[in-house]
């Protein structure tokens, strides 16, 4: 069970001007039954799925070269030579695609006061007591952790990847530097895959999440339950909220 | 003089292969059962003290392996080409060294190329099954049709030997003329050497011959003469006799204590196992959590609260269409 119906009447008041909205472009609430909330614009979703596809392809081709037990995965890419040749290029696609996501999402992923409280109560969340969690904005501390660790890991992966991309960059580094780059690249890749597993699992576990990245919107109940502060900000935003007609335009 | 290697008949009927895939003791990215019987270990001994720098070995290597080195640019030294390439499996490296004890200029000439390590770093780094093999006679060979051109062998090698071709994206290095040795011939470079600075035979024979040479050198004032058969890679199947075996690095950077880099060992060892375990653990944790905690569903109350917040009077019951709103658990 989440918040009581009485307490939200006071909190529909717009937040003070000093408080930052962590509402992103295109986010909008559409009153109705049920309420629907626009969470990701078409270009944001496209950007996300390009990144997702390249990350999966990179994980498959990278794991094939990481351990002999998974070398058979090279068959998916047309053999070992193709896997070796194509992996770095997919990495370039991922880097620029993720850069797009980074500039879209970084502001809403800045740390907020409630993040500390959220992390302290993350055990309650996993145990199914979401009512004990603080109200959070567009992203909770866990999502922010996924965002920032992916940002850092992808920066490390592209840098170390270029050092070991012998076809074009062989003369620029020493063999010892290339050895370090390979070790760093493999460790960062393992961590990135673990972060990705957490990200995918969270989307599966928290039902109603996938529609945010497929159709672009979630239900009001989903927003109320998981990102109530964000929902309140959206409702309190000028041109939205109580007096807005159903399906008002986004901006 | 070391007795010359006989030239057995090259008639295909008479020439029987002395080793084959049945004699592999290591195969890259594969687990194989080594044969019960190991072949006699072979070795090439390069006596640096007898080398006159004629480069007959370099030419013979190009000729036998049908390689064509590009005409490059002289860098002003006798070392030509300036480095090993995918076409030059062997290279005479010339060093002008002033001996601090005698103030004499010594012209050190070392024939560089694959050392055929007993513990081959290239093979251990290789991700492609069967691209690098080691025969029980000690020869480490690249099987080019299995090579994917990743260059991991370059990082694994303690001697900086393999080179990846820009043309076909496969790695190349000295084969120890495995094709010649398989039919009882000596390596091409050894055959071409006019001073017996290169000799070839069993590893035991070569060590014995080296002892003889070292004794001779010591009797002539080279107190530090010795054999280069580095234990850091469990010995090699190409060995050097050096006049200054106490400082191999004066010979154009021959490593003093070669071994597979600990970075490569960490990458191919603990990182691989811990990494796979971490990823497996993350997936398992998700499964178990979902089994125990069940899905996190939006309740009808959540939907009603959202409707109230947006100013629509809640119906008091479940929202009309089941738009993503599951039942409470």
Automatic annotation (TrEMBL), chain A:
Residues 1-25 are annotated as: Disordered. The keyword tRNA processing does not apply. Residues 1-11 have a biased composition (Basic and acidic residues). It comes from Ancylobacter crimeensis. InterPro entries: Cyt_b561_bac/Ni-Hgenase, Di-haem_cyt_TM, FDH_cytochrome_b556_subunit, Formate_DH_gsu. Its main location: membrane. This is Formate dehydrogenase subunit gamma. The lineage of its organism: Bacteria, Pseudomonadati, Pseudomonadota, Alphaproteobacteria, Hyphomicrobiales. Residues 39-216 form the Cytochrome b561 bacterial/Ni-hydrogenase domain. GO terms for molecular function: formate dehydrogenase (NAD+) activity. Pfam families: Ni_hydr_CYTB. The keyword Oxidoreductase applies.
TrEMBL record, chain B:
Its EC number is 1.17.1.9. It comes from the Bacteria. GO terms for molecular function: formate dehydrogenase (NAD+) activity. InterPro entries: 4Fe4S_Fe-S-bd, 4Fe4S_Fe_S_CS, FDH_Electron_Transfer_Unit, Formate_DH_bsu_Proteobacteria, Formate_DH_C_sf, Formate_DH_Fe-S_su, Formate_DH_TM. It is found in: Cell membrane. Residues 299-329 are annotated as: Disordered. PROSITE patterns: 4FE4S_FER_1, 4FE4S_FER_2. Residues 42-72, 105-137, 138-167 form the 4Fe-4S ferredoxin-type domain. It is an enzyme of class 1 (oxidoreductase). Keywords: 4Fe-4S, Cell membrane, Electron transport, Iron, Iron-sulfur, Membrane, Metal-binding, Oxidoreductase, Repeat, Transmembrane, Transport. This is Formate dehydrogenase subunit beta. The lineage of its organism: Bacteria, Pseudomonadati, Pseudomonadota, Alphaproteobacteria, Hyphomicrobiales.
């Amino acid at each position: 069970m989440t918040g009581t119906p009485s307490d939200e009447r006071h909190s529909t008041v717009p937040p003070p001007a000093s408080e930052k909205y962590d509402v992103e472009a295109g986010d909008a609430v559409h009153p109705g039954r049920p309420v629907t909330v626009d969470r990701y614009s078409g270009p944001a979703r496209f950007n996300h799925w390009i990144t997702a596809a390249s990350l999966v392809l990179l994980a498959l081709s990278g794991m094939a070269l990481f351990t002999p037990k998974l070398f058979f995965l090279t068959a998916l890419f047309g053999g070992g030579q193709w896997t070796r040749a194509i992996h770095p290029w997919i990495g370039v696609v991922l880097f620029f695609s993720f850069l797009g996501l980074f500039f879209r999402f970084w502001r809403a992923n800045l740390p907020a006061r409630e993040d500390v409280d959220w992390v302290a109560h993350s055990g309650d969340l996993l145990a199914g007591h979401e009512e004990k969690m603080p109200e959070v904005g567009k992203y909770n501390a866990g999502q922010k952790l996924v965002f920032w660790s992916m940002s850092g890991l992808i920066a490390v992966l592209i840098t170390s990847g270029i050092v070991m991309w012998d076809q074009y960059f062989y003369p620029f580094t020493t063999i010892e530097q290339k050895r370090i780059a390979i070790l760093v690249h493999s460790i960062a890749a393992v961590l990135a895959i673990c972060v990705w597993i957490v990200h995918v699992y969270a989307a599966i576990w928290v039902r109603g999440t996938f529609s945010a990245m497929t159709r672009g919107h979630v239900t009001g109940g989903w927003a109320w339950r998981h990102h109530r502060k964000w929902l309140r900000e959206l409702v309190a935003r000028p041109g939205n909220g109580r007096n807005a007609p159903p399906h008002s335009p986004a901006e | 003089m070391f007795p010359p290697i006989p030239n057995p008949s090259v008639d295909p009927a008479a020439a029987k292969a002395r080793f084959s895939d049945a004699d592999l003791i290591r195969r890259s990215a594969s687990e194989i059962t080594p044969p019960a019987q190991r072949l006699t270990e072979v070795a090439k001994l390069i006596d640096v003290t007898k080398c006159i720098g004629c480069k007959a070995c370099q030419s013979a290597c190009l000729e036998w392996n049908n390689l064509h080195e590009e005409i490059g640019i002289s860098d002003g030294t006798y070392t030509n080409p300036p480095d090993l390439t995918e076409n030059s499996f062997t290279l005479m490296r010339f060093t002008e060294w002033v001996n601090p004890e005698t103030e004499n200029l010594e012209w050190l000439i070392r024939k560089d190329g694959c050392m055929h390590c007993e513990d081959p770093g290239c093979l251990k780094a290789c991700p492609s099954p069967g691209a690098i093999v080691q025969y029980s006679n000690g020869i480490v060979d690249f099987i080019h049709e299995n090579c994917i051109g990743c260059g991991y062998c370059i990082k694994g090698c303690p001697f900086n030997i393999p080179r990846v071709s820009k043309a076909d994206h496969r790695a190349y290095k000295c084969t120890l003329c495995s094709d010649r040795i398989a039919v009882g011939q000596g390596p091409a470079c050894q055959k071409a050497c006019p001073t017996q600075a290169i000799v070839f035979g069993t590893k035991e024979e070569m060590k014995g011959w080296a002892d003889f040479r070292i004794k001779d050198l010591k009797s002539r004032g080279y107190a530090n003469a010795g054999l280069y058969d580095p234990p850091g890679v469990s010995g090699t199947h190409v060995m050097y006799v050096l006049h200054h075996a106490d400082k191999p690095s004066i010979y154009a950077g021959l490593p003093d204590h070669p071994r597979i880099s600990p970075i490569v060992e960490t990458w191919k060892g603990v990182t691989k196992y811990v990494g796979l375990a971490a990823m497996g653990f993350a997936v398992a944790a998700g499964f178990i959590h979902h089994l125990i905690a069940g899905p996190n569903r939006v309740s009808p109350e959540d939907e009603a609260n959202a409707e109230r917040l947006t100013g629509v009077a809640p119906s008091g019951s479940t929202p009309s269409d089941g738009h993503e709103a599951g039942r409470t658990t």
